[in-house]
Amino acid sequence: MILSRTTQYAIQALIYMATQPPGVAVLNRTIAEHLNSPPTYLAKILQELCRGNLLYSFRGKQGGFCLREKSDKINLMQIVRLTEGPEFTEGCVLGLKVCSDKTACPMHTKWWPIKQEIVKLLQNQTLEMLAEMVASGKYQLTDFPGAVLGDLKLPT
């Protein structure tokens, strides 16, 4: 699809964390188990999100990761910028080095409005909104049934 597997794992992990009580650190392996993702790969993604100031990480017995801000303050575009890089919004859909209104690729005029809509969609979706949908049972984070994920409930 349009988002890399790295970005998908990042979004899923952050949605999972948004369903946890604020300030409670969650272990990487716990998140990986719930998302059925490779723990080593997920750890690298979570560290990148820490460097991007979306997460705190804590070492030691009570260690883990937690959101830096409330989930209603983090939108999907922030995550995508960290995981996909600037090429996601600035790059050419065909991968050409130079593509703009002046030097357009064959797809530029058709792709530009679609890209703008995708950016707007990602900016308007917060972790809180997505976490509420998952917690309601309407959507799930993985292919596993809800019983495997446990009782995800939004913190009050």
TrEMBL record:
It comes from the Bacteria. This is Rrf2 family transcriptional regulator. NCBIfam families: rrf2_super (TIGR00738). It holds the Pfam family Rrf2. GO terms for molecular function: DNA-binding transcription factor activity. GO terms for cellular component: cytosol.
